[in-house]
Amino acid sequence: AxxxxxxxxxxxxxxxxxxxxxxxxxxREYLDPVRFISNPSTGKMGLALAEAARGMGAxxxxxxxxxxxxxxxxxxxxxxxxxxxxxxEVLARVDEVDCFIASAAVSDWKPETRAAQKVKKSEGPxxxxxxxxxxxxxxxxxxxxxxxxxxxxxGFAAETQRVVEYARDKxxxxxxxxxxxxxxxxxxxxxxxxxxxxxxxxxxxxxxxxSGTKREVARSILGLIQELLPPRP
Amino acid sequence: AxxxxxxxxxxxxxxxxxxxxxxxxxxREYLDPVRFISNPSTGKMGLALAEAARGMGAxxxxxxxxxxxxxxxxxxxxxxxxxxxxxxEVLARVDEVDCFIASAAVSDWKPETRAAQKVKKSEGPxxxxxxxxxxxxxxxxxxxxxxxxxxxxxGFAAETQRVVEYARDKxxxxxxxxxxxxxxxxxxxxxxxxxxxxxxxxxxxxxxxxSGTKREVARSILGLIQELLPPRP
Lengths: 233, 233
Known about the structure:
- Two copies of one chain form a homodimer.
- By secondary structure, chain A is an alpha/beta fold.
- The first copy, chain A, has one domain: 3-Layer(aba) Sandwich (Rossmann fold), CATH 3.40.50.10300.
- The first copy, chain A, has six helices and twelve strands.
- Chain A has an eight-stranded mixed beta sheet, with helices on both faces.
- The radius of gyration of chain A is 18 Å and the shape is globular.
- The relative contact order of chain A is 0.16.
- At the A-B interface, strand 3 and strand 8 of A face strand 3 and strand 8 of B.
- Strand 3 (35-38) of chain A pairs antiparallel with strand 3 of chain B.
């Protein structure tokens, strides 16, 4: 980490002077003090993006869901638990960044209520009512839409079928510049593993396949993002 | 680990010749390929018990829920995901062990159905029907009850209120020899942290308070268990 930090002092890199905001990891939506709805995201892809962006000279802020102990040097980390926490921290920052990469696996639903005490088995619940959480990326996009200096917006689509179709729809619906789509059930891709294979779709209709370690895929994604950034003032 | 293994060759320890089965970590109950109900257990307490039992000369088998990368040398680890997986692996082994310590935070409910594909946001579910999972410890207790050579059964009770009362009830209802109760909302206790403070209740009505690092607490718990084991044949 010291070597990397020292190196960055001498090689400003293609993203020098840019601020990149990244969400990573899962969110947890608690139904009582000890139970939650979540997903298997480990934050590896998002943290690889943070590392790559830092390596290219960017200032990096990661809004990070609960992933346990991870390397977090060289960039600012804002720890969050729920989708609501994540939305709040992102919306407080998205106006001022050059790029927002939403790689977190945000829970789409949360329990309607959160019990103050651990719910005993005998009491239920047998039916859990779920309500939608804030859509972090869509809200961020709405917030910056129409601005003169609008950050490049990059989404992720973790799908198990019709991956490219769903991703293209999401790109258009949320007003994104690019979306990184992957089939999380494919071997060597998705949650927890160190490799990934993704399809990057951009607003101009182009489609690129990337595969390799998450670190390699992260560098390639940031190379594509770099092309989408407006020229420096 | 090598030093510990070498030491155990020369000092058989008070649990030499005993086989201890331990469950540790959370379980995950999936509602579709990418979403689940779980809890914040990191397996630290259970793995500290495994380490302590091994240090006292026991043969140790850990049935371990999803906790990410953890030290797992010196004992057998059986990886599981759901409560059903955990119950199956425990019931396959509990007949042959001298002690079963159920320290895992097993999900009490699971979604009634598991969708084959990721459920799209627009489709729902807005109501999630939950059904009970197998009670691993109660099933293990039923299985061995009345046997001549019955393992010592130790439960855990993670509570947020009326801790000792709930734990005493659980000890009696499930036919346990001891139960380790803790208030998971107390500072320096419960999920994820390296320390714990617990109350150990035994069938004879005694109650002991233990606190310290999870490693220290683990050693003390095993010291109490050692007293409950029948003399060696």
